[in-house]
What does this fold into?
Amino acid sequence: MDRFRPEGACWGGIEAGAELCDRACTNGMTWLMEVEPTLREVCTP
It folds into this structure.
């Protein structure tokens, strides 16, 4: 999870890596909202 924080490893490297991390983060949040609906109150994808 630390790699997805604003100062994490995902965003400080090459642009293609950042784009991959962005997709992984978005897909992960979408999945998480599906399996844990109560998180919708505190998180948004």
Remarks:
- The chain has a mean pLDDT of 79.
- The radius of gyration is 12 Å.
- The chain has one helix and no strands.
